[in-house]
Specification:
Layout lengths: L2 E5 L5 E5 L4 H10 L7 E4 L5 H13 L2 E4 L5 E4 L7 E2 L1 H6 L7 H8 L1 E5 L12 H9 L3 E5 L2 E5 L7 E3 L5 H11 L5 E5 L5 H12 L3 E3 L5 E5 L7 E4 L4 H13 L3 E5 L7 H9 L3 E4 L3 E5 L10 E2 L11 H9 L4 E5 L8 H8 L3 E5 L2 E5 L8 E3 L3 H13 L3 E5 L2 H4 L5 H7 L3 E5 L16
Parallel strand pairs: 2-15, 3-14, 6-7, 10-11, 18-19, 22-23
Antiparallel strand pairs: 1-23, 1-24, 3-5, 4-5, 7-9, 8-9, 11-13, 12-13, 15-17, 16-17, 19-21, 20-21
The chain binds ligand EPZ.
């Protein structure tokens, strides 16, 4: 297993280009199944989950072409297989997103039941209930969801819980359903809006994406389209927190600042000086120690759960005590124990972590458990007084494109050690800044 070795104590300075959003790219690539014409997607991030999604589409029979500029063309004209197998779904939970498109266009889908993951049980009842309302029928056999539909029809759906991929699955299914579908209590994340924009570009008729009420008028078929996905707001937030934690001055480029409002507000509260432009955000700590902040995660436009671990880490070296309350997932504090092993002062009370800042963390050998927790540990290494070794960093590669190159480019002392013990140099993998 690869490891990251981080030597702390270096304030970060400089510009970093933010890649395309993982959580936009995945549903948008899968939306190609809705059309027999090619979908071209640009600004696709070079991530393990994207590779898995392209592998899944290929196994279903779609033709996938990837060029060197990370533009992907998917042509789903000849999809002949409707089965998302266990090993694919187990690798990437977002595979569940094939349900809606396959049912809408082909009337059938077999998808392995996704298990839970490190951060929670991750149920999919809302996906199933919504697709049933649209006319689909479901059986379970050998751990697989067997779904069929003669022809999906419009429905008025109220989602009991705000679900990002639940909203995306139902929105995609409804694009080809007969009649109008209304989704109430829909997720409002920018990635949902990006998917709706792409679907409308393919000829769908969707209104209200970005609000809690989305209205979809079904059409007979979707056509080809070229779409550029939005920037990864979580990657951007992660590098801004790295700048705040190290007392540095960091600019993230090629982003949509309007998608970062809740995060920027908390960074401002921590004492950072924030400036924004049309497609960039700059954070300058002027060498100051951050102040503790209080955070309660919530669906967009609230504070994103995917930034919870990073801000908890910021609090661990800030002045004062801050509370971090996780309301979305039931087990998203596994980074706490690893931070405590580095000297953090954290007291847990149910779904709230009370973090009292310490003057400095101590380097340690730590283990990543999930995608965002591993990013948090990398950031902790940046501020630790000695060396930190992070194990099981395959989690980090699922959501961060070339994290060690991007952090090194900002002045961090971080290297990746491969299994064989060789140290990765600045690889040509790293896209031009
Ligand atoms: C998406 O996951 C993201 N993944 C997650 O990002 C993100 O953390 C999450 O939304 C919340 O913002 C992708 O977009 C690929 P949910 P998703 O359905 O859609 C409950 C990352 O780090 N729920 O919005 O799977 C669920 O238990 C990943 O990039 C049901 O009860 O999350 C949770 O409490 C991690 N029934 C809440 O809804 C359902 O049928 C929100 O989950 C579905 C969800």
């Amino acid at each position: 297993m690869d490891q990251l070795i981080v030597k702390g104590g270096y304030p970060l300075h400089g510009n970093v280009r933010i890649s395309g959003a993982k959580n936009s790219g995945l549903p948008i690539l899968i939306a190609s199944l809705l059309s027999e014409y090619p979908l071209r997607v640009s600004n696709i991030p070079h991530l393990q989950d994207v590779t898995t999604a392209l592998d899944l589409l290929g196994r279903l029979g779609a033709k996938v072409e990837l060029d060197e500029s990370m533009t992907v063309e998917v042509n789903a004209r000849r999809v002949t297989n409707f089965r998302a197998t266990y090993e694919i779904v187990e690798t990437m939970r977002a595979s569940i997103l094939v349900l809606g498109p396959l049912l809408a266009r082909f009337g059938q889908a077999q998808v392995s039941m996704p298990g839970g993951c490190a951060i929670g049980s991750r149920p999919i009842g809302l996906h199933i209930a919504g697709l049933k309302a649209l006319g689909a029928k479901f059986d379970m056999e050998d751990g697989y969801i067997q779904a069929t539909a003669h022809k999906l029809h419009g429905a008025h759906i109220f989602m009991d819980v705000v679900s990002v991929t639940g909203t995306e699955n139902l929105m995609m299914a409804a694009t080809l359903a007969k009649g109008t579908t209304v989704i109430e209590n829909a997720a409002q994340e920018p990635e949902v809006v990006d998917l709706a924009d792409c679907l409308n570009g393919m000829g769908a008729c969707i209104e209200g994406a970005g609000t809690s009420k989305i209205i979809i008028d079904g059409v007979d078929e979707l056509h080809g389209h070229s779409h550029t996905i939005i920037a990864d707001r979580i990657e951007a937030g992660t590098y801004l927190v790295a700048g705040a934690a190290t007392g540095g001055d960091v600019r993230v480029r090629d982003v949509q600042p309007e998608n970062l409002v809740a995060v920027l507000e908390k960074l401002n509260d921590s004492g950072a000086h924030i400036s924004t432009g049309r497609d960039w955000v700059q954070l300058n700590m002027n060498g100051r120690r951050p102040k503790s902040v209080n955070v309660r995660t919530a669906p967009f436009p609230g504070f994103p759960t995917d930034m919870q671990a990073q801000v908890l880490m910021l609090n661990s070296i800030a002045s004062g005590t801050g509370s971090i309350t996780e309301t979305i997932f039931e087990n998203r504090f596994q980074h706490v124990q690893e931070l405590q092993r580095m000297g953090a002062n954290i007291a847990m009370n149910g779904s709230t972590a009370f973090v009292t800042g310490v003057d400095g963390l101590k380097g340690a050998r730590v283990t990543a458990t999930d995608l965002r927790a591993s990013a948090c540990l990398a950031l902790a290494g940046l501020v630790a007084t000695s060396q930190t070794v992070i194990q099981k960093i395959h989690h980090i590669d699922r959501g961060y494109n070339c994290i060690e190159e991007k952090l090194s480019q900002l002045g961090a002392h971080i290297t990746r050690v491969h299994d064989s013990g060789t140290t990765a140099s600045f690889s040509s993998l790293y896209e031009a800044v």
